[in-house]
Each structure stands twice: as structure tokens, then as C-alpha cells.
């Protein structure tokens, strides 16, 4: 059977080896034939069907991911050994998943990539064993692992062995967590238990229109609840990027998506024993930031875009934001400062005044943990009025979710720098990496207001009776607000007590932070003797 004669479901029937002993040249020719059959996959009709869905083939995706000519495939001749339901008649090479390693920006990266053209990319015993081997190799070699996912879940014809295959993947995801970077790239459907592997990895990318993730599909939802919903509305890329938070990145096409995966890999270390790669920076380390004076209003009640502040102080204004569309009242992302990678967590006053709530706490906690696992210093920009009040937040577990962020910061041993831009009130000030929970250095602009609460609220609480009894309560209230602000909220109050290391000119923010990061680069913080902490998950 030729490559182009394959059906769309099972793939090309692999050629059989000759039984008579030929010479070596004949064997090499036979190898070339088999290798080409494995490379081509199930043939033209299945390939055209893949393209018609707006999706690339598995080999095209791998070519986009790796530096040209560096990919090395393993187990390309692997075939399943299942029988029944017609499987014995369809035994294509690769069994629907391509595994191997190559170079991304000159550094080693491992990949497994589903081939939807073969059994719909579904996972069977041989398919799973290939992935298990690849994951073990990635962890042993200390190099990142990328999953290019485009599979229809467990191979129903193989029964429980397929489910056991997923269990092996999940166990290895957990074992490699915090040891090597793991990136899931969702390029097609992902349903049922298969969705747990992406959720166990460090970063999830999705492509709009072709990638979906859900535990139960629209048909099951309708049969159980009566609700009618489309695949996209239930588990599409935009839903997971902006509503559920299951995806950190969403792109319009596969080429852009995979290119951004390559960029993320350029910011991450190979493993938890290395520092992230540094590059030469053309942006001067001592560049002044005079624009910040006009970007940030001194009035704590006026909003502004914290992204503009970040872009002003980092190298070339380049911020690689994670979860840009979810929990947008906090910003998390990677940038470089003087060529060195830094993880940035920042309140966003332009959204909900930058308040901390359930989702923003969870988002930031996850990001802090990733940075700490992979030796990426943390810079926290603070302009926070407190935690979001209300029954919905309290009943939803704001205490528990806020504690996730607190636990993540307290456990982090990487260099940690806090910069208080404006207000920092109450428990939210503590949680946003204050000196009291272990920040190495805390800087503040002269616009900083650090207090238990804002002056208005404080006056209403502390002087409530006095204000109520005054001949003119409003005048008395304004007087007490002024006194509270002057005595307890002036810009140098925290600095006088050693809770802020320095109050700095905003124009010197970049150079100050770069100097501090350079000083902390050799930081070593011994860990306590314990198996692991018990964070409020």
C-alpha cells in the first residue's frame, strides 16, 4: 500500500520487512522506505482533511518549533499490538504520536506531538509508552518538555490500558513539576481525563477556533443538564483564557502560537538547577524614567495603566504577559532588566482599582511559584487598596485563595524586590511581598501611602463618635482625615520604621532595581528540613 492510499482514520498500513536476507544496501533502501512511510503519515487525503480544519500536520508543527534540521525522532517505527474492533488491520507507524528532541534557540527541548490523522491522535498503550519514555528522558536530561496536543482522548478500542496510559503521564507531570519547564500547546480537542495533563504543566497555550478543553462535552452537558452549548462556548480558547483561567495564552493561528512558545522557552532555564539565560542588553541600565512622573497620578483615587509603568522600566519595553485576559486586576509576566530575566507581579489600578480578589490571588500565586521553581527573581509593583469585599468573595473563599498568594511569597527563596508605587493598604499590602513576609528589599516612591486602610475609612472608624458629636460633622471628619494622613500615612512613615529600605525618585526606578537585582543574584536561602509545605490549595 502506498502512502497516499491510507484511510483518514487508521493511517497508512506500515510496510512489512522482507523475509529473505538481502545485502546491507538493500536493507538501507528498505529502511529509507519505512522511514519515509513513517514521516509521511497516513497520506494525502488525511493531510488535506487536517488542513481543511485550519490545522497544520504534526511534522509541520515540529518544524516550526525547532531550529532547522535539529529534530531527532525516537520510536518512529513503534506500532500498537492491540486486536479487536478492526485494530489488527490498522497498525501505522508512530501510533499517532511523534516523539523526540531538538534545539530551540540553540538549547535542547523535548517534544511529543499528537498526529490527529492517525486514530484521531487518540492514546493507546503503545502511544502512551512512547510519551512515558520521552518524559523520562526530558527529566533525566534536564531539559524542557513541550506537548503539542491534538488528540481525541483515550483510544476506546484499547479499553483500560489507554486509561492507565494517561495515569502514567499525569504521574510524570507531577514528578517533573518544578524540575523542568513543562509547556502544553493545545492545537485540537482535549476532553475528559486528558485535560488534566495540561492543567498539571507550567504553561498552557491554545489556538482560537481549533483547540478546546472540557471534562464533559456539549452532548453530555445537554443530556445531564438540558443546556445546549457549542464546543467553543464550553471549552474554547477564549473561554479558558478569560473565564476559567485554564489557559495562559491564546493565539489566532498555530504559527504565531508556536513562535511564542519558542520565545517563552528563551526566557526559561533548562531546569531548576540553572539560572534563566541572560542576553546582552542594548537598553542602558542607567536609563532615566522621567516619563513615570506623568504616567502615574499622585491622587490615589485616579486610575492609570500599570503596564505603561512596567514597559517604561524593563528592557526595550518588552513584557511577556501570562494570563493577560484573566483576572486582569493583576499583571503577571516575564521581562528582562539589563539582559536578565525577572518575573513581575503588579496590581493594575485600571481594573477594579487593582484590588486583590479570588482570581487575581490565585493567578499571582501560581506565577510566583513558577518563578521560584525556576530561579527567576521576583519584582512586585504595589498599588493596592485591599482585598475585594462582599459576600460573593467571602463565600467563594477569598481567605483561602488570598492565603495561596501569601504562602507562595513566603515560600519563595529567589531574590524578591517590592516597589510601592502608591497605596498599599491592609492585608493586601502584607501579601504583596512586604518586608515582613520576606522581601529582600522594599522601595517606595514619594507617592506611597502604607496604612491599615485609607485615611477616609480610618477616620470614620477611629473618630466615629467624635465626628458624630461635632457641631459640624463634615468639618470634623475632614480635619481628622488630614491628621491621620499626616501622622500615619506620610511617605516616610514606613521608611522611618525600616519597613521600606528607601524612598526613591521615580526617574531612578530602573537603575535602582537593576542594581538591587545584581546585588541579589548570588542570594542563597537554605530551605527548612521538610518533605514539602502544605499550601491552601
Automatic annotation (TrEMBL):
Residues 1-10 have a biased composition (Acidic residues). Keywords: Transferase. Pfam families: Carboxyl_trans. The keyword Ribonucleoprotein does not apply. PROSITE patterns: COA_CT_CTER, COA_CT_NTER. Residues 1-22 are annotated as: Disordered. SUPFAM superfamilies: ClpP/crotonase. This is Acetyl-CoA carboxylase carboxyltransferase component.
Amino acid at each position: 500500500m502506498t502512502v497516499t492510499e491510507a484511510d483518514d482514520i487508521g493511517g497508512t498500513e506500515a510496510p512489512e520487512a522482507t523475509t529473505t536476507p538481502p545485502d546491507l544496501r538493500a536493507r538501507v533502501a528498505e529502511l529509507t522506505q519505512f522511514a519515509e512511510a513513517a514521516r509521511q503519515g497516513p497520506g494525502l487525503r488525511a493531510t488535506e482533511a487536517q488542513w481543511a480544519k485550519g490545522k497544520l500536520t504534526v511534522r509541520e508543527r515540529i518544524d516550526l518549533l525547532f531550529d532547522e534540521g535539529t529534530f531527532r525522532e525516537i520510536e518512529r517505527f513503534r506500532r500498537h499490538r492491540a486486536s479487536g474492533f478492526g485494530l489488527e488491520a490498522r497498525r501505522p507507524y508512530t501510533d499517532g504520536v511523534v516523539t523526540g528532541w531538538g534545539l530551540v534557540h540553540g538549547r535542547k527541548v523535548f517534544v511529543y506531538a499528537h498526529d490527529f490523522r492517525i486514530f484521531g491522535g487518540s492514546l493507546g498503550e503503545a502511544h502512551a509508552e512512547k510519551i512515558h519514555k520521552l518524559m523520562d528522558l526530558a527529566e533525566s536530561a534536564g531539559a524542557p518538555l513541550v506537548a503539542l496536543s491534538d488528540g481525541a482522548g483515550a483510544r476506546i478500542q484499547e479499553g483500560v490500558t489507554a486509561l492507565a496510559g494517561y495515569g502514567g503521564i499525569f504521574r510524570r507531570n507531577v514528578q517533573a513539576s518544578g524540575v523542568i519547564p513543562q509547556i502544553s500547546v493545545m492545537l485540537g480537542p482535549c476532553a475528559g481525563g486528558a485535560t488534566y495533563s495540561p492543567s498539571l504543566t507550567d504553561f498552557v497555550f491554545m489556538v482560537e477556533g481549533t483547540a478546546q478543553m472540557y471534562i464533559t462535552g456539549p452532548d453530555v452537558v445537554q443530556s445531564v443538564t438540558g443546556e445546549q452549548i457549542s464546543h467553543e462556548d464550553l471549552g474554547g480558547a477564549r473561554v479558558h483564557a478569560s473565564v476559567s483561567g485554564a489557559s495562559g495564552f491564546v493565539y489566532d493561528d498555530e504559527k504565531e502560537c508556536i513562535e511564542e512558545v519558542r520565545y517563552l522557552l528563551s526566557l526559561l532555564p533548562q531546569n531548576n538547577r540553572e539560572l534563566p539565560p541572560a542576553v546582552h542588553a542594548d537598553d542602558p541600565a542607567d536609563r532615566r524614567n522621567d516619563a513615570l512622573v506623568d504616567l502615574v497620578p499622585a491622587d490615589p483615587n485616579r486610575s492609570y495603566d500599570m503596564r505603561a509603568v512596567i514597559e517604561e522600566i524593563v528592557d526595550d519595553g518588552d513584557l511577556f504577559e501570562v494570563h493577560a485576559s484573566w483576572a486582569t486586576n493583576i499583571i503577571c509576566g516575564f521581562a528582562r532588566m539589563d539582559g536578565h530575566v525577572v518575573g513581575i507581579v503588579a496590581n493594575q489600578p485600571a481594573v477594579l482599582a487593582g484590588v486583590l480578589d479570588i482570581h487575581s490571588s490565585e493567578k499571582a500565586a501560581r506565577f510566583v511559584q513558577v518563578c521560584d521553581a525556576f530561579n527567576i527573581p521576583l519584582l512586585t509593583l504595589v498599588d493596592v487598596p485591599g482585598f475585594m469585599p462582599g459576600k460573593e468573595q467571602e463565600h467563594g473563599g477569598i481567605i483561602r485563595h488570598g492565603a495561596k498568594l501569601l504562602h507562595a511569597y513566603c515560600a519563595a527563596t529567589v531574590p524578591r524586590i517590592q516597589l510601592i508605587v502608591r497605596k498599599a493598604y491592609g492585608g493586601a499590602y502584607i501579601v504583596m511581598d512586604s518586608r515582613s513576609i520576606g522581601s529582600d528589599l522594599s522601595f517606595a516612591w514619594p507617592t506611597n501611602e502604607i496604612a491599615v486602610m485609607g485615611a477616609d475609612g480610618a477616620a470614620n472608624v477611629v473618630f466615629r463618635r467624635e465626628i458624630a458629636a461635632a457641631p459640624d460633622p463634615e468639618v470634623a471628619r475632614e480635619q481628622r482625615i488630614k491628621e491621620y494622613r499626616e501622622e500615619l500615612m506620610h511617605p516616610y512613615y514606613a521608611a522611618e520604621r525600616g519597613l521600606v529600605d528607601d524612598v526613591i525618585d521615580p526617574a531612578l526606578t530602573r537603575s535602582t532595581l537593576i542594581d538591587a537585582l545584581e546585588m541579589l543574584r548570588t542570594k542563597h536561602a537554605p530551605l527548612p528540613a521538610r518533605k514539602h509545605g502544605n499550601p491552601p490549595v
